[in-house]
Amino acid sequence: MSLRTKIGNITWAVGLGGVSFIVLMALWIRRTYGTLLFAMTDQSFRNGLQNKRVLFVKNVMLPTAGMFLLFIIINGMCRKMNRRRAAYISGLLLAVSVLGACGILDAGMYLKREYRLNQLQWYDTDNVVAHALGSIEGIAYTNSKEALVNSYQNGFRLFECDLIMTSDGQIVACHDWDFWNRETAGKVFENGDVIPTLDVFMSHKIMGKYTPLSGEDLMIFLKDYPDAYIITDTKYANPDKVKEEFEALVNIAEENSCVDVLDRFVVQIYHGYMHDIINDIYPFQNYIYTLYAEGYRGEEDKMREYATFCMLHDIDVITMNAQYYKDGLSEICRQYGLQMFVHTVNEREVMKEFYQKGIGVYSDNV
Q1: How far apart are CA 9 and CA 17, in angstroms?
Q2: Which positions ≥6 away from 83 have C-beta within 8 Å?
Q3: What ranges make up the beta strands (E) of the chain?
Q4: Residue 168, by phi and psi: left (phi above 0), alpha (psi -120 to 50) or beta?
Q5: Tens digits of per-residue pLDDT, 201-235?
Q6: What global pTM score does this model have?
């Protein structure tokens, strides 16, 4: 056997042995860490390997050695074939192995996510969310047209809006009915019922002077101002209620021939199960996982759990109560390709501190 042939045989065996290593490592990674591992290789993967060296040797290195020996045997068999046939077999094994590894690691999902994260996203346009559409004349929580217009004119483009349903099943901008009845309607309802119809809600000025907003008004606003985004705060987490609210929201968009503006609604979910419920109604492009309803208090291990969920469900933003923020939590989010916001921050100096850490804020003072 010539030296050239020997080198070729060795190269062939080593190459396929290397491919087997890649495939087996991919299988072990998937089984140990789950999907999209490489989106979090900054820290958790390296730590994981350090903590699982014995398992890695047992489940990857030893089987790879066995596969390497098998390929040497196959190589010996292929020596009896002509070079062209051996090359075809080698190429086929290589292609199958690489494609198998990519499938195991969900490479397509990962590359798609990486591509999307490299595009300009809604949270890249501003680092302040106007809470409850912002304040008007120093008054917060009005969710009024005047507050929305004032915030937009002051340069803000991200608007969190409280959304609830009227007694006739229509979406309107309001924090809650007790607030509305106390501050707006007074004792309008003699029978004690505090949930109005859409017509009754729209016929009463908020606090006697501010204009109420319907779901249709919000759709028209987004249609007229294509650089604005509405972040939903729908309050309820009951699956049936969630379904009812978002079906109503989508119906409004369809009735007003502006379904495209739904891509500028940013859906806040309070529990993981809400994502699939809402996504089955309409494939919203933008989500936030807000953690206050989870009772989150700044635990790093729980933040990793939430970040993993977000990464696997194409959710780009996590928001949490500012009082529980600790240094290191935003770094965890960055490792998972997530942007962090905190709520609600009204002190200018505190807002500045969060900006310097790359963290966005929800604020009434806009």
Answers
A1: 12
A2: none
A3: 128-130, 158-165, 171-173, 229-233, 265-269, 286-290, 317-321, 339-343, 360-363
A4: alpha
A5: 999 999 999 999 999 999 999 999 999 999 999 98
A6: 0.77
